[in-house]
Amino acid sequence: MTVSSYSFGQNLVNKETEKKIDELLSKMTIEEKVGQTVQYSSLWELTGPMPNGESEKVLYEKIVSGKVGSLINITGTEAVRKAQELAINESRLGIPLIFGYDVIHGFKTMFPIPLAEASSFDPEVAKRSAEVAAEEAAAAGLNWTFAPMVDISRDARWGRVMEGAGEDTYLGAKFAYARVKGFQGDDLSSRKTVAATAKHFAAYGFSESGRDYNAVDISHSTLHNVVLPPFKACVDAGVATFMNSFNTIGGEPSTKNSYLQRDLLKGEWEFDGFIVSDWNSIGELQYQGVAGSPAEAAQQAIVAGSDMDMEGNCYSTSLGDLINQKKVNEELLDEAVRRILRVKFALGLFDDPFKYCDAAYEKETVYAEKFRKDALNAALKSIVLLKNEDQILPLNAQLDQVMLTGALAIDKDSPIGNWRAQAIPKSAVSLLEGMKEVQNNLTYVQGPDYVRNDSLTFLSLLDINETDRTGIKEAVKAAKKAKVVVIAMGENCFQSGEARSQSEIGFKGLQLELFEEIYKVNKNIVVVLMNGRPLDLTPIQDKAKAIVETWFLGTESGNAIAQVLYGEYNPSGKLPVSMPRGIGQLPIYYNKTNTGRPTNEDVIFTSRYTDIKSSPLYPFGYGLSYTTYDYKDLKLSSSKMIEEGNLEVSVKVTNTGKVAGEEIVQLYIRDKVASLARPLKELKRFEKITLKPEESKTIKFTLTKEDLAFYTSNNLWETEDGVFDIWVGPHSDEGLHATFEYVSNNVNQ
Ligand code: BGC
């Protein structure tokens, strides 16, 4: 067999390799088999607490004695080669190691954070970003990324909202699929691709009260209808590995959840790659109170189908004994090892274990200039224009006296975002640099510092400046003279990410004070937001004339924002999350089910708040452009959809403004009467179109019965007969409406 016959999207099992795996397994001692299931972190970079410090020497000895299957947090061809040489040349069987790393939104050339890329509503953007990340990572010795994170998230308090595609299952599944394709390409054995990981399996995004690592308690219906489809999309895309999650669901930790791992993923979905635990999630079974010892934890995890132990030291210390004492069936270990070896074969590591270790290729590939245009393109498409009163934007570099302020405007680090792999600190194009390229008479006055510690890292705690007002006066003075004031506001990038949950989602430090002081002297305010989670925008909503959501856009951040501010690029992004009116609305998401007392803000005994509206400040799917679009002529091919048939839906969209633009046309449905309460709206299709001024296009969507199906109490995906609402429009809260009826064969008979 040639390794390239592991074609993308096909399953990893192939007769010839399975034979080779049989042969290998027959030669392996129990200790060597256990070794394959063990993953250690390097000592020089950690992404979690290290349970048992291992000195480098001890780690190397373990590799030589076949006690390690994989390393995490080791990058660069030199370091990888050194470790791989030990495994190949000095261990008894010479089984190659697999090197994993969190390459989430770029390796060194940084792309927008995943939440930002989801705002493009353009899966091709995410695919290309994953391709580049894979190319750089693979050139630097890696062959496995712990991405994509496909957790649905509805609670902005949770810091990891930044890592996923937002609140919607359909959009999430499309991005999940695209990212896996991007990372893995058509050929896992290519030196431009890496194995991907669908994580965190499952429901980690539903951590109670948005606090990281917290328990999850969701319904069977939410699990199947909302949480799982993006994971299934990863399997459909041929993902090589899965990572389980830290959380419990209804008291059952994912790491020992046999239903999820064995019955569903490896059984029903026929996933044939392997499952890695999350960092010490096997060991944490003890803290969760389901295992009394590392041995018990190891036993539960292997029985439930967790194949590899990331830094948990439970498999390494206990699995061998458990098998010798007949407490764990050796076949379970064999199965885990088989799955791990399968991925190593697919990566081509048995043919050439050093193919990811070419130093010259690494030098020419990592941070190559050619990737900049991809990073810029992704950044441009990720920007969402939320407000543009009096058409204050775009700015005119020749006529407008523009003043820029806010500490984030010169911040070259925050736009890189958290989960930054090997990004060079402070290497992003800042907003100031980007705007200066277009307008060199720009005035910049920083205002107060945002954070006190300017050398933050993944491991540091944030120290926000709340007292030093230096710079406010000077900023106000300059604002008086300007025609337009651009204020960069939001978060430092290390406010979001793992372990960065917050009880407040407002503007921290002195940012609002600066905003208010400027507002007193100049009403022409454009706010440029940089943030990793939805923020509470209510304090600035009415006062700012324009609000531009940029998230964290990566290396090319400042250039992309400047192109949008000055109208060189017409923004087209749409929100992948609802923007709340305040923390009290969380969790908030558009696709909620109805209540028996549907919300009516004017009627007291309905599902509402007494102090704020129930609707979000900006709905899911929302985003403006410098032009306007008109939707008309919503047409359905029939008022009935029969079981074998399709429903054709068409709509005419016209650019009614003066500039060309891109619009994301969105189709939503509602199952009006069903056996379970169904969401008020659900995204089922979207398409990005480009329109010149006055140009019209007719967009056609085809729906099938699968689009109408949901996971019912029969534990099946079923489409139920009855009437459906359908909307096509610019976002989840606006659209042309029609209805149709679905009729199954059962009814016809
Ligand atoms: C995170 C994972 C990550 C792993 C390795 C964990 O703390 O939850 O998403 O892949 O660390 O860095």
From TrEMBL:
Citing just one GO molecular function, the answer is: beta-glucosidase activity
* A Pfam family reported for this protein in Swiss-Prot or TrEMBL: Glyco_hydro_3
Asked if the record carries the keyword Ribosomal protein, the reply is: no
Q: Cell membrane: present as a keyword of the record?
A: no
Q: What class of enzyme is it?
A: hydrolase
The record's listing under Gene3D superfamilies reads:
Glycoside hydrolase family 3 C-terminal domain, Glycoside hydrolase, family 3, N-terminal domain, Immunoglobulins
Query: What family does the Swiss-Prot or TrEMBL record give for this protein?
Result: Belongs to the glycosyl hydrolase 3 family.
One GO-annotated biological process of the protein: glucan catabolic process
Q: Which PANTHER family match?
A: LYSOSOMAL BETA GLUCOSIDASE (PTHR30620:SF16), PERIPLASMIC BETA-GLUCOSIDASE-RELATED (PTHR30620)
Q: Which domain of life does the protein's organism represent? A: Bacteria
Designated name of the protein = beta-glucosidase
**Known catalytic reactions:** Hydrolysis of terminal, non-reducing beta-D-glucosyl residues with release of beta-D-glucose
Q: Which UniProt keywords apply?
A: Glycosidase, Hydrolase, Signal
Q: Which positions are tagged coiled coil?
A: none
Organism source for this protein? Flammeovirga yaeyamensis
SUPFAM superfamilies, sorted:
(Trans)glycosidases (SSF51445), Beta-D-glucan exohydrolase, C-terminal domain (SSF52279)
The catalytic activity of this protein is classed by the Enzyme Commission as 3.2.1.21
Q: Which residues form the Fibronectin type III-like domain?
A: 663-732
